[in-house]
Design goal:
With 230 residues, the chain is mainly beta. It has two domains: 88 residues, Hotdog Thioesterase (Thiol Ester Dehydrase, Chain A), CATH 3.10.129.10; 133 residues, Thiol Ester Dehydrase, Chain A, CATH 3.10.129. It has three helices and nine strands. Strands 2-3-4-1-6-9-8-7-5 form a nine-stranded antiparallel beta sheet, with helices on one face. The longest helix has 17 residues. The radius of gyration is 18 Å and the shape is globular.
Length: 230
């Protein structure tokens, strides 16, 4: 909602956007959205971490969604983009994001989410268009054998799984969800989501690509109340 689009592609940023991918995403819900109304969003860059010419730069940003009339805060969206072609400028700072490993015990819940062969093309309809998700030539230039699924699309599928498995399809059951993307997902592959419920509200999860046994995502979630399946 009220998204600025793929702003890293704007010339004033001087980012090599062809090599830019989503590294982390977080969504914190502060208040339920009303059924009708207007929202505004404000985006700010919060940090830039130089990982060197070989690994690129980490670009941290935060966007807030507010009621356009009252100013009430509905949601905060934080993200980290990996700008693989923009490292080596010399500004070092601490990468402070910490994602805990899952407990050394079997998961509590596991489910699968099937992606579609046309999933990336459908997801492009939301308006944030990066050609690595739709054009084979652009994907090859970025180092992928074929177009990859949007990280934020995978994020949405994982959110769906958590709401279904832990919240009985009550979307308000998830207060906060944060992920780190570890590997690419290709349209048509199956996401296998394992969940560990640590206490009444805190969850750790891992997402594997079933067909390749590749760890694609790991992250954490905070429930608004005790899991309905705890």
């Amino acid at each position: 909602m009220a998204n600025p689009g793929f702003w890293q592609q704007e010339s004033w940023t001087e980012i090599d956007w062809v090599l830019c991918v989503l590294g982390e995403q977080r969504l914190t819900m502060h208040k339920r959205f009303p059924p009708a109304g207007h929202v505004t969003s404000h985006l700010r860059v919060t940090d830039v971490v130089d990982k060197g010419r070989r690994f690129g730069a980490l670009l941290y940003s935060e966007r807030t969604l507010n009621d356009a009339v009252t100013g009430e805060l509905y949601a905060t969206l934080s993200m980290m983009s990996i700008c693989r072609g923009d490292g080596g400028f010399g500004r070092q700072s601490q990468d402070s994001t910490i994602f805990p490993a899952p407990p050394a015990r079997p998961y509590d819940f596991c489910c699968e989410m099937q992606t579609l062969n046309q999933h990336a093309l459908l997801f492009d309809l939301h308006g944030i268009v990066n050609p690595i998700h739709s054009l084979p030539a652009a994907a090859l230039e970025a180092g992928y054998p074929r177009p990859i699924l949007h990280g934020i699309c995978s994020f949405g599928l994982v959110h769906h799984a958590l709401v279904r498995e832990l919240g009985a399809y009550d979307a308000d059951a998830i207060r906060d969800i944060a992920v780190r993307f570890r590997g690419p997902v290709y349209p048509g592959e199956t996401l296998q989501i394992s969940m560990w419920v640590l206490d009444s509200v805190n969850v750790i999860f891992e997402v594997y690509v079933k067909e390749r046994r590749l760890l694609a995502i790991h992250g954490t979630a905070q429930l608004a109340g005790p899991s309905l399946r705890a």
